[in-house]
Amino acid sequence: MGKINKVFVLFFIVFLFVMCNQKEKINTNKESILKGSANILVDETITPIIEDQVAVFESNYDAKINIVSKSESEIIISLFKDKSGIAVLTRNLTSEENKIFEQKKITPKITKFATDAIAFISNKSNKDTLVELKSVLEFLQGKPNSSIKGLVFDNPNSSTVRFMNKLAGVKAIPEKGVYSFKSNQDVIKFVAKNNGMIGVVGVNWLSQPMPVMQEYVDKVNILSVKSLTGVNFYAPSQNNIAEGKYPLARDLYIINGQGYSGLGMGFASFVAGDIGQRIILKSGLLPVRIPGRKLNIRNEISNEKK
């Protein structure tokens, strides 16, 4: 009988050991603010800067973030279709979209982290690098304009189309003289190969071109734009965006609809923090807050030669 009890105790100890290991394995795979895996929906017009942020975030933490680049309209649909979504948009949520989250009993965490801009580009052979915003808007309104032969957008459902349509006061882009592809890369390639067209892209694709896109970016001009009320033309530079001179600037937001303390919260804090803001600053976009500089002050200066 004593022998049977010993076997039972030994079996029970082994059982507890296995169960503890299983529990530890489950906890290891559990997502937290700095650990685990998650998908992030990203507006295609700002994909390069988010790729940089994710690369550094993953190198610092035990996390895996999968970037899903889509048009703005596709992101909004996916964001509400998923039970717990994270999205990076070029605008904040509307009141109607907030109501959908309320129905799901989720209060989304909104983090503004940078300001970028929509840029106009033309073929390098075009010597005129200036364009009036008024002319572009009139073209979108279907009014004849001798200075513009055609406009090229990335996607009919993109944030750039929505932004420009809103400025022009139209619900849809005109069929004549306006073309659309699938991505910002397609627009840059098309303009690089075709003279006389004006491309409409996110400036991040020009300030941080991917290696495969560099040869095409080198073949286009970034146009300086005159606002509807201004007299001067301004390029979409970091300084002009900061001073409010460039008329096509827009704020960037991380929308965290997870409803719990997951990677969405950790990633948003990282991007809005010191390291993330330095990445923004280096990219040519405008960070929400300018990272501070550390200065080493010495009381004595050594003149000794080394």
From TrEMBL:
Q: Which UniProt keywords apply?
A: Signal
The residue ranges of the PBP domain are: 36-273
InterPro entries (UniProt xref): PBP_domain, Phosphate_ABC_transporter
Q: Decide whether keyword NADP is in the record.
A: no
The record's SUPFAM superfamilies line, in alphabetical order, gives: Periplasmic binding protein-like II (SSF53850)
**One Pfam family of this protein, by short name?**
PBP_like_2
Name of the featured protein: Substrate-binding domain-containing protein
